[in-house]
Amino acid sequence: MTVPGGTRHAAGELVKPALELRGVRKAFGGAQALIDVDFTLRPGEVHAVVGMNGAGKSTLVEMVCGAVVPDGGDIVIAGRRHGALTPRKAHAAGVSIVHQRRSLVLGLSVTENLLLGRLPTRGGRVDWRRAREEAVRALADLGIDVAPGTAAARLGPGERTLVEIAREVHAGGRVLILDEPTASLGGADALRIHRLVRTLRERGTAIIYISHHLDEVLDLADRVTVMRDGRRVVTVPAGEVDLPALVRAMAGERLVQDRPDRARTFGEPVLELDGLDAGRLRGFGVTVRAGEIVAVLGPAGDGQSELFGVLSGLRRPRAGRVRVNGRRLRPGSVRSALSAGLRCVTGDRLALGLVPGLSVDENLDLVRRGLARPWLVRWGRLHREGRRARDRYGVVTLHSDPAVTTLSGGNQQKVLLAAWLDTGVTACLLEEPTNGVDVAAKADIHRLVDGLADGGAAVLLASSDVDEAVRLADRVLVVRAGRVVADRPMDQVTRDDLVSLTAGGTTP
Ligand SMILES: Nc1ncnc2c1ncn2[C@@H]1O[C@H](COP(=O)(O)OP(=O)(O)OP(=O)(O)O)[C@@H](O)[C@H]1O
Ligand SMILES: [Mg+2]
């Protein structure tokens, strides 16, 4: 089914498209990732691309920026047909991209990142004064309030994304691709990104916007293209479609459902944190009982993200204690945390969660065996157990056991959860557990987390996603600037309270 495209900008109809894809195809090792996709993008248009994990969204845009070579079809940029694009050619043709996996160099300053590869020189040396002026101008032009001398590592996640977008815009592209720019951002940061996208649209930039946040898509986009299993299902003006229709188009026959309310009973205290000081976190304490889910909610980077390091044992807190079933964990000891049955799932799957050089089953096996007998690989069992875990967690792959890096973002997330949550969990910390997963997978993961709690685990959820906290948690703590500003049973707080608390409002 094809609905003819329209746009909120009447003028958009008259100008030639900024980008046109005609019948593009791509297979990976015989499996079709994209099948005959047509797509147009007009100047001054935000064109959202949505679809389930693995639908082909990233592959489609990576093709436009020359990172993936199509097997067939045409790519037409500003009226010019390109057969084989390379990243350099795509860039020269005016295409910029902020990849699903972020790419700021954390050891460099904002200025260096912004001007990477094109720092101004004088007499053969970098002209730092001019570089700085240029960076100040570029940031001010987009209304981004970040000091150019700051090391990228010190920026919050929202600021990192803004700087990445600024870098691409500064390179002067007419087509800007944003692949899940708000995936791991809280509400306030996401709004800053939306504001920037609107500014760029007004200036005539053509923007492809990939996101799993469908309400944001409907709010921001002029048109929406839905992808499913490598095909374009439909392209519609955003004003002519609602959320349920979008989900139906994305999911096809697949069922998307949420779990009904359950009455939970809690047991004894299992996971006790007391007076923790680490990074931005100050004097943090919480007790999670058996069967209970407690959310620690706050803008990413405001303190709740220190929990992963401390609880996993990768990082020694400056002060404070962690106890599991009354037994104190040795600070800064991974072994101590693991042997107590404490499982920590990172929110940064590629940096800290998965081993990129290994296959899916090998990654699963690594965690399983790391916890048991690491000296013997039994391949038959590795694949048997791997398949079981992939099925249980709904990991969709084109081949039977591919390298984990070739999976789509959401499917990598499922592998990470499968690796850690299939291993006998007494207590766990889940950091942004549904980061980048589609609506159906999100519901599946929520059911899995419910299941963990129903089985008696103590679950701590570190998140910037208010709706996820509301859906999952029995109790919620809001952390801002490193301190707990609210601590409530979930039935005594509304979603709106939480939105305003995390965005900087006062205690209701
Ligand atoms: N280099 C590769 N080798 C093999 N398969 C690949 C490769 N890149 C992508 N794929 C496969 O192509 C399919 C489409 O992946 P893609 O990353 O485009 O999905 P997506 O729609 O962006 O999903 P997500 O929402 O999870 O990011 C997936 O099944 C993925 O595993
Ligand atoms: Mg993707």
What tags apply to this protein structure?
single chain; 508 residues; alpha/beta; Rossmann fold; six-stranded mixed sheet; 17 helices; globular; binds adenosine-5'-triphosphate; binds magnesium ion
Written description of the protein model:
This protein is α/β, with parallel strands linked by helices. The protein folds into four domains: 10-102 and 173-251, P-loop containing nucleotide triphosphate hydrolases (Rossmann fold, 3-Layer(aba) Sandwich), CATH 3.40.50.300; 105-154, no CATH class; 258-341 and 425-508, 3-Layer(aba) Sandwich (Rossmann fold), CATH 3.40.50.300; 356-423, no CATH class. It has helices spanning 57-64, 87-92, 110-114, 128-141, 157-170, 187-202, 214-220, 243-251, 306-312, 334-339, 349-353, 360-370, 379-392, 409-421, 439-454, 466-472, 495-502, and strands spanning 19-28, 31-41, 46-51, 72-77, 80-82, 95-98, 121-122, 125-126, 175-179, 206-210, 223-228, 231-237, 269-278, 281-289, 293-297, 319-324, 327-328, 342-345, 427-431, 458-463, 475-480, 483-489. It has a six-stranded mixed β-sheet with strand order 6-9-10-3-11-12, sandwiched between helices. It has a six-stranded mixed β-sheet with strand order 18-19-20-15-21-22, sandwiched between helices. The chain has a four-stranded antiparallel β-sheet with strand order 2-1-4-5, with helices on one face. Helix 5 packs parallel to helix 6 (187-202), helix 12 (360-370) crosses helix 13 (379-392) and helix 12 (360-370) runs parallel beside helix 14 (409-421). The structure holds adenosine-5'-triphosphate and magnesium ion (MG).
